[in-house]
Amino acid sequence: MSRITSAFIGGLLLLLLSACGSQYQADNSVKSDDDSQENQIIFHATEEQDLSNYIIEEEEDEESEDDVPYNEDWNYISTLQLERLLDGLPAESQDRSSYDEVPPEWDGVALIDSRPPSVYASGHINGSINIPDSEFESYKDRLPDDKSTKLIFYCGGTHCPLSGSSAEKAEELGFTDTYVYQEGTPAWKAAGNYFVVDVDHVEEKIMESYVSRDDTDPVLIIDTRTYSGYFDNHIPTAIFVDETQYGNKYQGFAPADKDQEIIVYCGGFFCHKSHVLANELLGDGHRNVKVLAGGMPAWNQAGLPTFGMESSEAEFDVSDGAVDRSITAEAFAEMLDEGGHAIVDVRGDGEVASGMLDGAIHIVDSDILAGEPTVEDKLPSDKSQTILVHCASGARAAGVSEPIVDLGYENVYYLDAAFSLDDEGNFDY
C-alpha cells in the first residue's frame, strides 16, 4: 500500500473514532496475556453498528518499479497546477514566430519538452519549446536569458527521467526557479487536453506512403480560417469548418470514432480559432485532438504543397462579385493616420481591458452576429462613413463585416492581420 493510501486510511479511522464517541467507549487498560499483546486500546460497542461502508479494501501500490524515484531536490508541479498556470496565459501569441521560441506573452514562464525532436513534433503541450535532454548543450540557447524565469520541464510520464535531468542541467546554468512536471504527456492527455504538432507531423499524414497504407489510421485535418482563405490555398486533404458554427452546423463532420486523430489549424501562432475548435472537440468527447499552432504561415514557410486557387492556373471568383473588404496592416495604419473613420473593436471584454485604440467603438462580435438591436445604436449615424473593424487576428472582424454592411453601411473594411497595442496604446504590426 502506498504512503498516501496508508495516511488516508489512518486519518479516516481517527475521524471515524472521534465522530462515533456516542457509540463506542475506549478502555485504555493495558492487556497482557500469553500472546504478549500489550498496550492495546480495547473498544466496547455499546450498540451494534454496521461498519461495512467504512471498510477500505487495500489497493495495490500504484507506483511502478519503472517510475523515476522521488527526488527531494526537485520542485514538482502537478497536472492540475500546470493547467491552472497555463489557463492564466494566452493560448495564442501575437509575437511568437516559431516553435523554437517561448511565447513572449508568457512573461517569466517557460515550458520545456525534454523529449527527442521527432516525438515533440508529433504532439507537445501548447507553448512549449523543445530542448532534448540528450542534446541539451546544443539546444540550451533556446532558454530565456533571465535566469529567474520559471522553467517547467516535462517528458513522457512518471517513468521518463529526461525532465528531471534537464531541470538539473538548467540549475547548473544558474536558473533558480526550475520545476519538473513528472506526470508528463500521458497525464496531460488523460486530463482532457489537446496537444500541438508541427508541420513535419502533418506532412507525414498527407503523404501517399501514409494515406494509401492499410495499416494506418485516418486523420482529419481541419482549416478554421475564413472560407476565402481556405479556397485560395489550404493543406491537402483539409476540410473547412467555421469554429463559430461547429455546434449547429459542422458537428457531423467530426469522426464517430472519438479516438481518431484530428488536426486543427488556422492563420498562425496569433490565431485563436484553432484553439477554440480544439476545445470544442474535446468537449464533444474526442480524445486525440491536436493543433498545428504555426498554421498556414508555417506550412507555406516550409515550402509544402497546397490545394486551392493560388496553386492552380485557373481563375475563379469565389466571392461571386462580393466586395473584398479585407485590408492589410499597412493600409489600416494609413487610414488611422488619415482620421475621420469609425473604428470598431470586436474583441471580447477581457481583451479590451488592456487597452483600445483612441476613439474606438467596442462591440463584441457575438452581439453583431446575434443581431442585437443595441449594435446599430453604437455605430455612426452617417451610414456613408467608412468603418474599420478589427479584432486580434482578423477572423472575427471578417465574420462581422458583412452583417454590418447589411445594416446599411456602405464602406466597411476589416483588418486582415494580427492586431496588438504597444505600451503607449499605439497600433503595432
* Total beta strands: 18
Basic shape = globular
Largest sheet, if any?
5 strands, parallel
Which structural class do the helices and strands define?
alpha/beta
* Helix count, DSSP H or I runs of 4 or more residues: 17
What's the mean pLDDT score?
Answer: 86
CATH architecture of the largest domain: 3-Layer(aba) Sandwich
Domains counted in the coordinates: how many? 4
What is the percentage of strand-forming residues? 5-15%
Q: Fill in the CATH topology of the largest domain.
A: Oxidized Rhodanese, domain 1
CATH superfamily of the largest domain: Rhodanese-like domain
Which strand order does the major sheet show?
7-11-10-8-9
Q: Share of helix among residues? A: 25-40%
Rg calculated over all Cα atoms: 29 Å
End-to-end Cα distance: 58 Å
Assign the CATH class of the largest domain.
Answer: Alpha Beta
Q: Pick out the low-confidence regions.
A: 1-9, 12-46, 51-61
Layout of strands and helices, then pairs:
Elements lengths: L2 H17 L4 E4 L14 E4 L33 H9 L21 E5 L3 H6 L6 E2 L5 H4 L10 E5 L7 H11 L5 E4 L2 H7 L4 E3 L1 H8 L1 H4 L7 E5 L3 H6 L6 E2 L5 H5 L10 E5 L7 H11 L5 E4 L2 H7 L24 E2 L1 H10 L3 E4 L3 H4 L8 E2 L2 H5 L4 H5 L8 E4 L4 H11 L6 E4 L4 E2 L5 E2 L1
Parallel strand pairs: 3-4, 3-5, 5-6, 7-11, 8-9, 8-10, 10-11, 12-16, 13-14, 13-15, 15-16
Antiparallel strand pairs: 1-2, 17-18
